[in-house]
Amino acid sequence: MITVLALVVLAVVVTLLAPIILTRGAWWLHRPQLALRFWLGALTIAASSLLLSVGIAAVIVATNTHTHGIGAPAAGLFAWCGLGVAGGVAALLAANAEPISAAKRRTDVAVTILVARSTARVEHIGGHDVAYLNTADPIACSTADGRVLISTGVENAMPPACVRAVIEHERAHVLGRHDLIGRVAALNAAAFPRLRTAREFRRTVALLIELVADDAAARVCGPATVCNALTLMDRIDANPGLELRAARLAASPVKSWPHRRHLAPVLRSR
Amino acid sequence: MLQLLWAQDAAQTGRQVRDALAENGDPLASTTVLTVLARLEKKGLVERDPATKAYRATTADPAETADSMTEVLGRSSDRTAVLQRFTGALGVEDLHVLRAALDGAGMGGDGVGVDRRDV
Hints:
The structure holds 2 protein chains of 2 kinds. In chain A, helix 6 packs across helix 9, helix 8 crosses helix 9 and helix 9 runs antiparallel to helix 10. Chain A has 10 helices and 5 strands; from the N terminus they run ααααββββααααααβ. Chain A has a 5-stranded mixed sheet with strand order 3-4-2-1-5. Chain A is elongated, with a radius of gyration of 23 Å. In chain B, helix 2 packs across helix 3. Chain B folds into 2 domains: 56 residues, Winged helix-like DNA-binding domain superfamily/Winged helix DNA-binding domain (Arc Repressor Mutant, subunit A), CATH 1.10.10.10; 43 residues, no CATH class. Chains A and B meet through helix 4, strand 3, helix 6, helix 7 and helix 8 of A and helix 1, helix 4, strand 3 and helix 5 of B.
């Protein structure tokens, strides 16, 4: 029973302390990848501690380990309450997963149609398809299935080195499975709307994955090139976030070791 | 399936679509192919000839298609994380936090411009 209580305390402590410790100061500006790992670690510890505590309590009840004292009724009450809460959370997650799945299906259809009808050419870079779309709209994005879309509007607005920086940024999202992390954060926030940690997790994750992708692109293309790409993108698709991200890279460039930069080869298929 | 139909001049029957998909390394059951085609027809993306029962992709102006699909992608810029955009999906609060952290660290964003030497 002590183990069960210890696990619950651990989950509560991690949940309460994570937003206080991880959002303190500006260290995460310099180490966004580390900050993202800490957030994911905190979520994993809190969730697995709670699930484990309910599981252990259920085992205690099932095997009648505590036959005397308050251990047995306390474990029973905790196990049943825990199972009830777990069921409620599962129902909330299922209900909130549906709109996200529907949005994903709509986007997949839109991307498929857009790629089928408007692709000027496709390149293969480091195992990813990069489709260049014939449209003046500033499109630069990646999809959950690993495709990168770049419009001629973006291509015409910046030099090739900056376009490559945009592509490397998007490839970093794909390689880091940032879509999955974002969806976990969105579901977590939807399941616990009143929990500050869940709200902070969702907000911080959205920010950190952009900074992580910027840093990944900077390691390959150079910080100044990524900075320029952000600034040029801001000119065709004004967004205050682009300017702030450029300012971060300009003031605190990531270590990129020019001699170690490795650009994946570009293979053209049409 | 849409890419396949757009690439063909003539209308294709369900069986022809199934065979072409199989040739492309995507073997599907006939019923699955017909179900998908029926759904595409319902969405107005393909047309079915009632006499020959063959399907043809609806003819749309590529620029018009791009515009409408871009609009759909634009709506996906919410925070359901189904699409990662270079511009990001940062909300007002995210921007406030980022700006405050940059100011706090003495890394304010005024005067960032393009360095032509690097590009």
